Amino acid sequence: MNESIERDHIDTEKMDPEFVDAIVAAGADRIRTCIQCGTCSSVCPSGRRTAFRTRELMRKAVLGLKDDVLSSPDLWLCSTCLTCLERCPRQIKTTDAIIILRNMAVKEGYMLPQHKKTSKILLETGHAVPIDDKNREKRKELGLGEIPPTVHADEKALEDVKKIMKKTGFKKLIEGEEAGSEK
Amino acid sequence: MMTEAQTMSLFLGCVMPNRFPNIEKSLRVVMPALGVNLEELEGASCCPAPGVIRSFSDPTWLALASRNLALAEKEGRDIITGCNGCYGTFKEAIHAVQEYPDRLKEVQNILKDVGLKYNATTDAKHIIEVIYEFGPENIKKLVKRPLEGVRIAVHYGCHLLKPSNLRPWKQTQRPTFLDEIVEATGAESVKYRDKFICCGAGGGVRGSNVSVSVDIAKDKLDSVHEVEADCILNACSFCHLQYEASQAQLNKESGEKKYQIPVIYLTQLLGLAMGIEPDELGLGMHMISTKPLLEKILG
Description:
The complex is a heterodimer.
Chain A: H1 17-25, H2 39-42, H3 54-63, H4 66-70, H5 83-87, H6 94-107, H7 113-125, H8 133-142, H9 155-167, H10 170-181
Chain B: E1 6-11, H1 15-19, H2 21-30, E2 36-40, H3 53-56, H4 58-75, E3 79-81, H5 84-99, H6 101-112, E4 124-126, H7 127-134, H8 136-142, E5 151-154, H9 177-183, E6 188-189, H10 205-208, H11 210-226, E7 231-234, H12 237-254, E8 263-265, H13 266-273, H14 291-298
């Protein structure tokens, strides 16, 4: 056998038949009708310059290659421009499918460090992009309130937002999961 | 006919008040002149971002978005936003709870704990929607400083237009409403390649894969450079950030200063045409100098 040449094959045990059911249940209801035409990949701005192929992601999802899909860094190259969703000839909600897959990935512990950082900032401040000193100054100079009238200016509101993020499990998802990965 | 004045809750989001307060300033100065009184939406949080936070936890995204909407509902007003991302979040969040009663119940249960009622009766509008309702014809009447000879590369962005079944625009492909608003100032909306392409900032791509993100932005910057437009015109605080910051970064990487295209926010442009002073519109606080454009307009 020539070991340097290997034919790609899919191991049966890697295929999780329940995976696609879960994606459908979460809202990407037409994903099984995908005909692999590649329209999604052809209109994808990220796909123009990277190896990210939406078509491949859809196929693997339908085949139930759960671990392969959820651990793929490519999953995070979609800028959610929604062009593929608009153009899909099967009306598959491709962008929704990607968001569903991302939610599943995060639950499984796959999250990029920068995204974890943004989530922590949201947990702490109620803003994904909070105010900084430079922009406080700019606001003053412009005659706007130094602090915008958002959760930044209202402790009770921030407490409410934190309470909600605790109740939805977001705090545990972000902070708890990190404790697990720091073995 | 002038549209009657209306009062709306201004949803600021994150990027506008915390990174581009100059845009916020122009919005606050110009919108009342277009018949919209802005009330503060006190205690509002991140929308949260439709491609980032929603990608991590859809239930958290829906709960926080609904809280923001509930704050406006309490005041009996609709939300107005100047960010495509925030707009996308609210449109999709409203759809989710109106379409799926279980999700509304889930959200109501969560909001009850923080003393909020929510019945999903509040709508969210983009500033462009409200400005277009005011109408290009009425804008023409307010123009004191016609922007004749100014060549503008109009950028719509993504979540403003898509998914088209959840958006109010009649024309789902190659719309013209923003071009019509821009041309009401006397300026010309120029044709350029890939006009409807994504800025590349969304979906958490700018945050985690900045080189890919900037490379997407570069496509449009090159097209705009090619047709020698005087500026890029946008109405989304995140697209605005992307086109300003990406030019600065591309210049830094190349050691050249090729990318010097002023990035102008819609209410800044309208304000200029209405005769408002550039400083009042925050035009002196850009990452990419607006001076060449201002010189062309003010002489």
